[in-house]
């Protein structure tokens, strides 16, 4: 059972609302990620973090922001939600890469947060 | 352009039958390839991970193969069960950075019928 938790699992909100998707992991992993996934499409990296106070934008441009104040916590915030933000958001974490690259960067995913913006 | 292509897009089989899912990639330089299983409404779960020197790896009824020369991988499922119904995602990592950038396929949607 993965020790990475996302809340809420499902969220339906109106346009213009501010939302925060929570992600917490109890594995002590340094690296954390946010992916966006639409039906039948590949996962797209929107944010990642190497550790506390580190945040980087991913491959897919996103209007969301993230913070990493604590190792275990990596919330994602949308200041003003729009229908185009409707999607599944997946949080993941991985341990710091070791000397043996085999098995490096194996991601543990949360169950996801499905956001619908009306 | 680094890409990961999976086939078929979807597959329906009867319970107890075997099946093979394909993954072709153009990612270079190659670091490792992993297969994930994603149940509907859940996050992906890792099945196997293979590096350049590994040709095959098993995890229960799942067996993954890798041909690094032709840049192809397959995931073979033996004696399928209803619980195998899921999307199977091929992910390839490069060695271009410390983070090891990941390239995701779109997945093969497998449905197992009783």
Largest sheet data of chain B: 6 strands, mixed
Percent of residues in helices of chain B: under 10%
Count of β-strands of chain A: 11
Please state the CA-atom Rg of chain B, rounded to the nearest Å.
Answer: 14 Å
Instruction: Name the shape of chain A in a single word.
Output: globular
Kindly estimate the percentage of residues of chain B that lie in beta strands according to DSSP.
Answer: over 45%
Number of helices of chain A: 0
User: How much helix, percentage-wise, in residues of chain A?
Assistant: under 10%
- What letter string, H or E per element, gives the SSE order of chain B? EEEEEEEEEEE
Span from first to last CA of chain B? 41 Å
User: What is the assembly state of the chains in this entry?
Assistant: heterodimer
Uncertain residue segments of chain A: 98-103
Q: What would you call the structural class of chain A?
A: mainly beta
Instruction: Say how many strands of chain B there are.
Output: 11
List its traits.
heterodimer, A: about 120 residues, mainly beta, seven-stranded mixed β-sheet, four-stranded antiparallel β-sheet, about 0% helix, B: about 110 residues, six-stranded mixed β-sheet, five-stranded antiparallel β-sheet, globular
Could you describe the 3D structure shown?
The complex is a heterodimer of chains A (118) and B (114). Chain A is an all-beta fold and 118 residues long. Chain A contains no helices and 11 strands. Chain A has strands at 4-7, 10-13, 19-25, 31-37, 44-49, 56-57, 65-66, 76-78, 87-94, 108-109, 113-117. Chain B has 114 residues and is an all-beta fold. Helix content of chain B is 0%, strand content 58%. Chain B has strands at 4-7, 10-14, 19-25, 30-38, 45-51, 56-59, 62-67, 72-77, 86-94, 102-104, 108-113. In chain B, strands 2, 4, 5, 9, 10 and 11 form a 6-stranded mixed β-sheet that branches. In chain B, strands 1-3-8-7-6 form a 5-stranded antiparallel β-sheet, with no helix packed on it. In chain B, 36% of the residues are buried. The chains are: A mainly beta (118), B mainly beta (114).
